[in-house]
Model the fold of this input.
Amino acid sequence: MIRCIIIEDQPPAQRVLQKFVSDMENMKLKATFADALKAMDFLKIEPIDLIFLDIHLPKISGIDFLKALPNKPHVILTTAFSEYALESYEYQVVDYLLKPFSFERFVKAVSKVPAPGVERNTEKIVPENNSAPEILFIKSGYEHLRISIDDILFIQSEADYTEIFTSEKKHLTSHSLKHWLQTLPSVQFTQVHKSYIVNTRKILKVSGNSIFFDKETFVPIGRAFKESFVEGYLK
Done:
């Protein structure tokens, strides 16, 4: 039996997780917390196998809580913001659930948790391409704008920020080009210039040293990237 707790400050999300856990015959929910600090006190006295941990929490974030845990149980992170995916895997979490997630996706995550008593695999876990985010939330002022990754044409680096271009508009972000290269699925996105990442599914044609998305929209191919781009995507 997998003993688990939920650390989530939003009641609707708490209820979803509680229902999903109750539907699993091999899981036992020991407690639910809206505050990670109270959960930390609980973990000092109660043995737990698994934590469902939200990233955005009051007082202390889920990532900071994870860093502070001396003896980490298995952890499945839950969040509505996909930009934390890469950082979360640095802490060897079992899986990363992007809200809203289905019961089938929940079961897939839980199935990765070793049975109690089985030694933890200490190899670094990296996100699989097939579990990469299908949507992104781009921070704009006080809002987070939802963007489907399939709508992205290319991403351009400009000094300390990047711009995400779709067929309809562009979005300014504070993330680096390296961040997007690590976050987006490599089977679909590749760097073709020191300042550009392209969505290969949106390419209309390649002419000379330029990649076209329509008759007027194109980006350059850098000399250092041309050979790998040709080998990886044009053959």
Residues 2-127 form a domain with the Rossmann fold fold (CATH 3.40.50.2300).
